Backbone:
């Protein structure tokens, strides 16, 4: 056993060395620097930061280099590193309504107060490979100090959408990185889980709600990308201290309206927020958020995207990756046990068939034949 273990250790060490060699590629080419990744692959870095629950663009770039571009491996590295960091407390809620957007679009109003801000986007480009453009882009609509009220605030002014302010019975937000997940979850807990959830999984679920597997009927109320200030309330000072600015993407989705003979019709909300530039993730998150609010609106669960336990339990890509990829690890004992069972069943079947051939009129044979069929 000792020899086998030592042999396995050598094999693993050699595998790691080979991985590093292949990951480096042609040594005649310059090695990738994490700062290059952070600066030039911003959308990818944003996903790693969001699903890794840690805002640090250069560290996310470093994780992507180490993971050789494997996004889920990079997210795992970020989360693992995050667990080693000291925790000082929680920041104050960020005011996304006051952020000066680099990009702000709405699919609900053409003449939006404050104007539409296209910013940097692939939305209107031809899906063709082009030569790299080294010239600086022209301004995509600098709004200066223009006031940009939220679309949902405009609707709220006419009582046409459900209120966003927490009610008196709204629970204190949980921290899913410290407290075990229990169902049913609060909406704050679900939003945390969705923010950390796999973008592809949430995209598929969001798409399913648009195809009828969930009550959404969505309109993109507003998508904003910009920087917000993060503040920390220092107990010894008694007031909030600015810690810096981070880039975020926010999506306010306007969804299926509700109403009854006792209450006026109102649109409902779906919400998504990510680090950096992550519009697709924020939109998918907001669609799934609304789908999971079935209890609040007395709706029946008729689709996977409305099943809280199904969505939350399977959206975490680190957990999913570990559970799927553990199948590559040795399962010799388990397989040999099942192999022995299958061989035994196979032998029992062969004997029953042989008995039927020898005496097809035997009562016990007819009984076994019936059991077999």
Residues:
């Amino acid at each position: 056993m000792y020899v086998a273990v030592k042999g396995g250790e050598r094999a693993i060490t050699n595998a790691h060395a080979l991985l590093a060699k292949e990951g480096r590629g042609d040594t005649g080419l310059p090695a990738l620097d994490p700062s290059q990744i952070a600066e030039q692959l911003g959308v990818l870095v944003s996903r790693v930061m969001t699903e890794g629950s840690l805002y640090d663009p250069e560290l996310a770039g470093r994780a992507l280099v180490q993971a050789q571009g494997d996004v889920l491996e990079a997210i795992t590295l970020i989360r693992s590193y995050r667990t080693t960091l000291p925790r000082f407390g929680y920041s104050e809620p960020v005011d996304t309504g006051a952020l000066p957007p680099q990009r702000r679009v709405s699919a609900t109003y053409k003449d939006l107060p404050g104007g539409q801000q296209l910013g940097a986007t692939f939305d209107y480009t031809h899906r063709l490979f082009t030569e790299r453009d080294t010239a600086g882009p022209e301004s995509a609509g600098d709004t200066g100090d223009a006031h940009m009220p939220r679309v949902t605030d405009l609707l709220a002014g006419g009582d046409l959408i459900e209120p966003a302010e927490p009610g008196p019975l709204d629970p204190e937000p949980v921290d899913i990185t410290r407290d075990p997940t229990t169902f049913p979850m609060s909406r704050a807990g679900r939003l945390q889980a969705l923010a950390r959830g796999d973008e592809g999984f949430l995209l598929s679920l969001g798409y399913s709600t648009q195809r009828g597997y969930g009550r959404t009927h969505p309109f993109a109320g507003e998508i904003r990308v910009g920087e917000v200030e993060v503040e920390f309330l220092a107990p010894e000072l008694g007031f909030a201290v600015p810690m810096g600015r981070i880039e975020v993407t926010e999506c306010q989705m306007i969804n299926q309206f509700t109403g009854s003979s006792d209450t006026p019709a109102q649109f409902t909300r779906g919400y998504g927020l990510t680090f950096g530039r992550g519009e697709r993730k924020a939109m998918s998150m907001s669609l799934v958020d609304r789908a999971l609010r079935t209890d609040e609106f007395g709706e029946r669960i008729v689709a996977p995207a409305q099943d809280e336990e199904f969505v939350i339990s399977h959206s975490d890509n680190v957990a999913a990756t570990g559970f799927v990829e553990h199948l590559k690890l040795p399962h010799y004992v388990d397989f040999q046990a099942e192999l022995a069972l299958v061989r035994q069943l196979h032998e029992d079947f062969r004997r029953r068939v042989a008995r039927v051939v020898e005496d097809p009129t035997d009562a016990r044979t007819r009984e076994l034949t019936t059991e077999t069929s």
